[in-house]
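Forgive a beginner's question, but would it be possible to get a protein, spelled out as residues, together with the matching structure tokens, please?
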Amino acid sequence: MTVYHATRGRRRTRRVRVLLGLGVVFAVLAGTAVVMWFWPAGPRPPFQLPVACGEKWQLGTYPGHGTYDVDLFPMEGKTAWGRPVYASYEGTVTAAGVNGELGGRTPQNPDGPRGSGGGYWVKIDHGGRWETAYMHLLEPPMVEVGQEVKTGQQLGKVGSTGDSGAPHLHYEQRRGFQKVEAYFDGKASEITHDDREYAVFRTSNNCAGR
């Protein structure tokens, strides 16, 4: 009986130590998350429009779209379908796949069933707690998670997957955990709150390697 109780006591002690160790790990992780939340972001990267060099695009929003969300439509050429989407700045791909449900809108069936979410999309970590997101792509992204990309590298093509009514590129810039007003070539996009429908026009200077 003495041996039995001693063994049981040692097991209980080991369990307590394991639980204490796990508690320390969780406390460290929680503390790290809090620090990351309040840690100031680095300088804004020199983001460029995520479209071809020299092209003029409309940047717009509408009521209920989302604060600082930008929809891009080409002002030149016959169609938005299949236009190349480029990285705004160099970084590491952290998401590349499907966000929500794809739906069935294609160049051959533009009025097909609408999906949900961002459809085919890409998200890039640019360092310094800055991120960009690219949504409603036509096809599966041309990059994969963990891949390093350069400014102006093609990520995919403009489409209308997900919750999209027409072919366009939905674009976001994030600082830390918050969306912020997008800047392109050092200038504010002027797309801020979604209290009304409005648009501005910009010409891309995303000319790296071109």
Residues 31-37 have pLDDT under 50 and may be disordered. The two ends are 82 Å apart (CA to CA).
